[in-house]
Amino acid sequence: MKIRILTGSIIFIVTMLLVFSKLLTPYIFDIFLISIGVLAILEMSKILNLMNKLHFKWISISILIINCVIMHLLLYLGYDLWLIFVVEFTIICLVVGIVALIKSVNMDIKSAIMFALNTALICIYPSFVINCIMLVNNLFSSSLSLILILLLFLIPMFTDSFALFVGVLLKGKKLAPKISPKKTWSGFIGGIIGGVLASVICYFAVKNIAYFDAIPKVFLNFWFYISIGVFCSILGQLGDLFESFLKRRANIKDSGNIFPEHGGMLDRIDNLLFVSFAITVILLILI
For 14-20, which contacts have Cβ atoms below 8 Å and span 24 or more sequence positions? Predict the structure, then answer.
């Protein structure tokens, strides 16, 4: 447990330093996102290989980088969030379709479609979702973007930490014993409390920034942050269970061994991926 806490603390400090580096330039954080995206894709590829799911991992890495370049180009040309989101997703669909056509030459149709769908999975989770975080990182004013990025990272971190400590302390009925035997309902509720606390911290940060920068009114509503905290905490824990399901299918405990007592990159960002996609969709609706 001591090693886990120490590793988690170091991860938190380094992540926050990189998050706040975007006040100087967003490009440092973009490079950080591409780095964690590549590591997560490689780990996801390993999981699919262990499940005997054939796919192209390098296409996913290429799409991660290509979509980043296209995003910056479209932002420079003044296009809005909806168009960028649609263009990036369309690129994935086109590439997956091409993969299916190519593979149908030397595979039966069903195998070619499954190959393409496996490639689509890794192109979306985690590649496309990492691109969503990049979009939030670059789309808004530095102040609002910083708050949104903090929401993206703090809600999963607080959710994870509170779920772990409350679950260990109170124990109780198992949440999903066939998928993740250690998770409990008490930990699940504790995770929601942690997610709400993270959102409230971001709310008070926004209140202070609002004195110096123009912030849309919806981002000044206290109950908006409470709702985001509850919703994203639940969604993040579902993301955690989703990755646990994949690992159980692949018969492995962790997606990697980069972080002592924390596993791999995908283990660290599984709930972040679900939360990031949700907040991006929320932004699409609000803006």
Answer: 15/153, 15/157, 16/153, 19/146, 19/149, 19/150, 19/153, 20/146
pLDDT at 198: 94
For 49-84, the pLDDT digits (tens) are: 999 888 888 888 999 999 999 988 988 888 888 888
pTM: 0.91
